[in-house]
TrEMBL record:
This is 1-alkyl-2-acetylglycerophosphocholine esterase. The keyword Lipid metabolism applies. It is an enzyme of class 3 (hydrolase). Residues 63-89, 225-250 are annotated as: Disordered. Pfam families: PAF-AH_p_II. Keywords: Hydrolase, Lipid degradation, Lipid metabolism. Its EC number is 3.1.1.47. Residues 238-250 have a biased composition (Polar residues). One of its GO terms (biological process) is lipid catabolic process. GO terms for molecular function: 1-alkyl-2-acetylglycerophosphocholine esterase activity. InterPro entries: AB_hydrolase_fold (IPR029058).
Amino acid sequence: MSFLSRYVVPQFPAYNGPYTVASFDLEIPVTSLPTSQKPPNSAEAISTVQFRVFYPTAHKFEPADTERASSAPPSDAESEGVSSDAEKTGWTSGWFRHRATLDDRQKEQSKPVYWLPEPHQREYLSGYARFLGAGSGLAELISYIPRILHHIALPAISLAPLMPSNPGFKFPTMIFSHGLGGTRLAYSHLCGSLASYGMVVIVPEHRDGSAPVTFMKPGVTETELVGSKPENGEPGIGSTSAASKNGNGNSRVQVDYTAYPHQISEETANGRNRQLEIRLWELSVIYSAITLLDLGQIPPSTAMFDADSSTRDSLLSTFKEKLDIRTPGSLIWSGHSFGSATMIQLIKSVYYSDKTQPNEDPLFVPDSTVPHDAPDAIPLGKQITASSPLLLLDVWCLPLLSKRTQSLWKLPLPQIGAGNGDRVLVIMSDEFFKWRENLRGVRRILSTDPGRRRDGEEHKVFEQFSSEPVVKEGEFHPNNDLPAPGVERGTQIVTPMTAASPSPPPAPVNPDDARKNNVRLFYVKESAHLSQSDFGVLFPRAIRKAVEPEVILDLNVRAACEWLRTCGFEKTLAGYTDIQAVEQKLEKMQLGERRDGDIFEGEVMRWESVPLED
């Protein structure tokens, strides 16, 4: 890349955590995962699952700068209150088994991790253009013009081993689900930032038609689907590779974005239900995959981008027995927008599976024996508990408003129903906070009785599950309840139709409910819906109503880290380092300076608490 390009190519800021971040892509054939659950009819065309992994490493990020994250461990002062070396797992110098050899490792060079997913960068750029409203011809032209965007790189290392740790140490592990228009890299800075504090973050790329475009290697039977047209409400699948015609074995199957109206309608419900069916099944398959990786088993035909089998096997071996997923309720679940709705539906579908009746046509019925033939792994049905940590960003309620989701909609999140509301953290953007209609739905989701009838016409949109719907078909969007955000609407981002009005007044709080439900619900002032994705920091001028995008993301990461340390990860997850001046970062880390907890005590600018309702 030329000298001039360094000043033109959008740049990511460095991760704020104390550890260097590494990353890789995996794609695993579904047929290589006999431990996983059988697919629903809507997912029969999906031959593989694909996800990106972000994690801490002992290697040093290149190009090396003093501004970059250090691979040195926090000082013993950060383990205040831990009495013995054995209890300081991961926090004393004992974290590193090979500390003496780090200097040699840090000299190694690494291929950049590019933001546009490889090897289909041009196609992803074209997909984003179509998602934003460009026609197919224009989108294809756009994909050839701004080649400089192909050089956007993450401040992370490709294919580096997981950070060495003491025997018995487990890294906090999270699965993150993207929203509409998202990919496995669209939230790289958020997920990479969490990894820089010592977490392993797994980000699937959903093949449900919610990504701008995605690709998968065809299976044995999928070749029949090449060039097929989707049925109404199903993601489009077809071949886009000339390789599939010349027989060189490099064929691929493309899944394009599928648009649905933002309306309470049968068309929308059918479309979003199919997408949720696929998403829930994919998450269950990926859970099976990571349980095998933690057991030290590599599924056959597992593909790691830009790595041969020897590199793949060596790298994945560093994850054996290192993921904190063998204790019920230890896996962290998270998502943004549609991804948040996905996680809500997954948690309820698994936890309340015994309360779901077949005649309700549930979107997902978990197999209690998955993963099969893996006695040391915990089935998904036991992993998801009333204590499972759940991080929800800009919850989008519309996908949960259908007849097939109604029975679970009426039930509380299991954490809240069991009095463990502190295991749920919800962070909203200013845009979504001011979208009153959606905010009412979020408050219902976070209540102990979401199905209870509320007084007022404004609540009827959430109570249209009876045989005679209480509302007619209509938009779940700005015209219903102003002001509203620029949310994903079909193939484009829709901007607010009116000027912002004052924030909605707090909903009445039932004292008994407030005592039982200690969910943390916050929003960041002057932030946009896309501020929690990479678009906010890469293209700040394009994201209206967002001020200081790096600060917005940092507040999200800071809250997540501090919250997770209260969820039982205080000995394995680094505390937030509140340092504004980058050049002082390493020095202050060595002094062990921390300000844990104050973000939840009303002491941080632009960080506001939102009252819950009964």
